[in-house]
Write a structure and sequence with these properties.
two-stranded parallel ribbon
């Protein structure tokens, strides 16, 4: 009976298992996709007016969301501005490359207040305006 004394050494596998890394990246991608679509909403409870037109908002430009609720309170990006509309709007517009204002006005808000907000935005450097509405059924 012959006994084999010399065994070849097993080769060391120096590869990284990519499956867990790919799984983690896919989960992160899904989380970022979900949170980025939520980021367009301001978080202010505004009852938007309905329209039958089918104008699509182009998401290429990052717009500054200015909201006016039914009580006449103004919010920028979901934060109340109080009496500091001009300074906060100027600060936001200075950091925005597109100079786009997306205006969300409650259907119960007065037209005069909406016009004064747009006028103030134009004074501090807004170049484009979009008015947010809901689609009629």
């Amino acid at each position: 009976m012959a006994i084999k004394t010399h065994q070849p050494q097993e080769e060391v596998v120096a590869e990284i298992n990519m499956t867990p890394l790919i799984d983690i990246m896919m989960v992160l991608l899904i989380i970022f996709m979900v949170t980025s679509s939520i980021g367009l909403e301001s978080g202010v409870d505004v009852s938007l007016p309905a329209t039958s037109s089918n104008t699509k908002f182009q998401k290429d430009d990052e717009g500054i969301i200015v909201s006016l609720n039914s009580k006449g309170e103004v919010y920028i990006q979901g934060n109340s501005v109080g009496d500091n509309l001009e300074e906060i709007l100027k600060k936001e517009l200075d950091s925005s490359p597109s100079k786009l204002i997306v205006f969300e006005g409650d259907r119960e808000a007065t037209l005069g207040k909406a016009i004064s907000i747009m006028d103030e935005a134009k004074k501090v450097g807004a170049l484009k305006f979009a008015i947010a509405t809901e689609q009629k059924n």
